[in-house]
Amino acid sequence: MGKHGDAMRSKRFELLAQRDVNKDTCIHEWAEVGLINTDSPLDPKPSLVVKDGVVKEMDGKKRKDFDIIDHFIIHHTLNLKQAKKAMQEDSLKLARMILDIHVPRKEIIELFSGLTPAKMLEVVNCLDTVEMMMALHKMHARKTPANQAHVTNRRENPVLLAADAAEAAIRGFAEEETTVAVPRSAAMNALAILVGSQTGRPGVLTQCSVEESLNLKLGMLGLTTYSETLSVYGTESTFRDGDDTPWSKAFLASAYASRGTKIRFTSGTGSEVLMGNAEGRSMLYLEIRCLMCTKGAGAQGVQNGSISCIALPLSLPGGGKTVLAENLVAALLDLEVASGNDAMSSHSEMRKTGKLMTQLLPGTDFITSGYSSMPRYDNLFGGGSFDSAEYDDWLVLQRDFLVSGGVLPVQETHVVEVRRKGAKALQALFKELGFPPIEDHEVEAATYAYNSSEMPERNRVEDLKASERILTDNITGAEIALALKKQGYPELAQRILEMQRQRVAGDHLQTSAIFDENFHVLSAVNDLNDYRGPGTGFRLEGELKQRITDLPQAKFPKTLAPVPPDELKMLIEEKGEAVIGADKREVVIALGPAFGTLLTETIIGLPHDQVLREILRGVEEEGVKPRLVKIYETADCAFIGYRAAHLSGSGIALGIQSKGTAVITQKDLPPLNNLELLSQASNLTLETYYAFGKNAARYAKGDPPAPVPTIIDNMARLKHIVKTTLMHMKESELANPKIPPQELEVRFVSEE
Amino acid sequence: MKARKFDPKKDYPLAQQRTDLVKTLSGIEFSEITLDHVVSGKIHPQDIRIGPETLGFQARVAEAHGRPQLAANFRRAAELTRIPDEEVLRIYNALRPHQATRETLIQMASDLEKKYGAKLNAAFIREAARVYQKRGIFDKTDQATERRGDG
């Protein structure tokens, strides 16, 4: 820093300090307490000693020191038949196997079932970020990616919930999750999104995230079809603080399955250190232990990728990579992965997107564990890294990279229609069940609302009573179907009943299961990821590609091409081949092939006749004679100018393309050099053309002027590039290298 | 006609391939579960529940696709289908840390076995009891219970 450093701040640094990314916390590692993503010095070294089928030592720990998690992993997860071979393999070799397209996914799953947590850590630590993305691409369980939506609002308005659930369903989400502000709302909220989702698209799985016994009850009643509230932890003390053990969670998993409810566990880096019990281990090592508990418990899958703790790994070096590694390890264990991207990960849009790409591009079973389908203002999960305002960004990303992130483009009219339908169905259901009535104006409000602040007030006390009645009266999914049928909703009734039937068949309990709109299950049994290198695995093609690329805002380029007006404002007459001028005080003004004929406006709509008038005025005011020619040999601005300069008696020419790009050049200069160039035609005004004409004349007089000031608009090219392309196409249509420059006579048709 | 043997490699999804094998807990055939039957009262809404045999078939599917833990879970679940909700929740709560004595858990395991023939769950609970004993999970302590939020 200079000696004045203390007093003065760089203005650029001042601005940097205010950037969104600098609102995120950034810390150095502190391994002893577990504030480290991977590679803690306290992470154990891989080891496994088995004697007579009994594990005597694992990852440097003797049997007598095993904690509850070690015991569980040894009892239920670790495949001792594979362990001998797997543990002896070099970790680097195992890491390379994952990326080897000649080694099928199945073989990796089998061999890796014999790895201890520390060995698994060592293997994934051999991979860099891009390799992990490739690995996830190959290893995630269900071939077809999907996505999960969050559907909540802070006033727990059931009408809005139904409308939002209906919209989320047509937007392509395969699962919808709601939660509560007050636990007593659980049944009502579950009911609202069940009705809404099935109105939008039959087969969407739904859940309501609440305390386990209530959650289980909702599943038993058939008001929900899945649950992902089962949290697991990587240290024994955290598990105890979480008021569970691997055995209690595994038992709960079976309890859900016994009632036909799909489950996935929840884990993620950071929870242990947040709860103060990381034992100095790295976050990734502890997460691997969580995942091994998940696997051992017989859960079909997991939501991980740090989930609600995401800002913690991201505050440390390697956070994004570690979170990706979590998803990968889950996939290596053959678990369904709902890969985070739900809780707010950064203040910076750029950083959020960067992180998202590591799951969106490889594809996972659910790209997010909850995309906020409504404005984050209403997100009761406190998250909403991506929300309803970012749908179109998401859709364009899918279109850019030709990947599926589980979200489909929709038409506004369709959304409005389905929101109203969902709200009306709930209105009918409330009527049948004798719940507090839903008025028509509430249906209308829910149809068009931005968020819950616009919803008419409801009697919360009465709604809560109705919600509790669902539980006390044991109102099941089948009874909901029945009530809807009575109220004249036979199709919706059928869908809700079908959901109950599917709970009896249990196909959706298998790994990575979702339903399509015909209630055909799609899981890692009948839609297993079969990636084996280029040309295999999930490819965006066919109907889905058509849908994902067909965005409502997409225009047909032909409709953007300019059309010539009925009336011409200037008449251009060609008087034969142009000759080299003898007048030393002339400027040749060379028009592009389509200027004033096939095209009559510049890119921003300045009429060619006015542009030309201004140029001529500028030249003439300097006492210089303008001579007009048309160039056909080329449509390129530089070459138009270059060609014209060689015709000019002064050696100075002003060339202009139809879109308005103009150049002043001199015959001694090489073609791509010039005296002045107005390259961004979109920023030009008639005054600029006037000034440009004047400057051309000054060069001809041998009195060089100050160049016309450059205007920079960084968005200009972005905004106009498609139109530029189309205009240039027209200009090029008329270009013909065989036609020499033509002398012109121009007559302006007067305005009156 | 005699029912075709179940092939876990080919018969998934059951709801499409083997509806003949799917029955509710109370023994109602899959094809009988229709809206009309619910309307007419032929089927009671509480009857629409997954049965143990179906979970057994799903266990075989899981196993045939290299997922032994998932299969084991479905087999434990099959046993739990017959156990009332309240009892299931009671066992779950007893398995949570410091919620039960060793004797209570062991007793629960025996009851499950005797009353419902739930051998797998009984063994699972006994296994938990052995580990809880080693790790002192039976002793009650007043631990803070800040739980991680769910996504």
Q: What report would you give on this structure?
A:
The complex is a heterodimer of chains A (752) and B (151). Chain A is an alpha/beta fold and 752 residues long. Chain A has 29 helices and 20 strands. The longest helix of chain A is centred in the middle third of the chain and has 22 residues, at 412-433. In chain A, 56% of the residues are buried. The model of chain A has no long low-confidence stretch (mean pLDDT 96). With 151 residues, chain B is mainly α. Chain B has two domains: 1-82, no CATH class; 84-139, Orthogonal Bundle (Hypothetical Protein Yqey, Chain: A, domain1), CATH 1.10.1510. The chains are: A alpha/beta (752), B mainly alpha (151). The interface between A and B is large, with 98 and 70 residues.
Structural class of chain A: alpha/beta
The description of the largest β-sheet of chain A is: 7 strands, mixed
Distance between the termini of chain B: 50 Å
β-strand amount of chain A: 5-15%
> Number of helical segments of chain B?
7
Number of DSSP E strands of chain A: 20
CATH domain topology of the largest domain in chain A: TIM Barrel
Poorly predicted spans of chain B: 141-151
The total count of helices of chain A amounts to: 29
- State the major sheet of chain B: none
Largest interface: A-B, 98 and 70 residues
Shape of chain B: globular
Would you tell me the structural class of the helices and strands of chain B? mainly alpha
Number of strands of chain B: 0
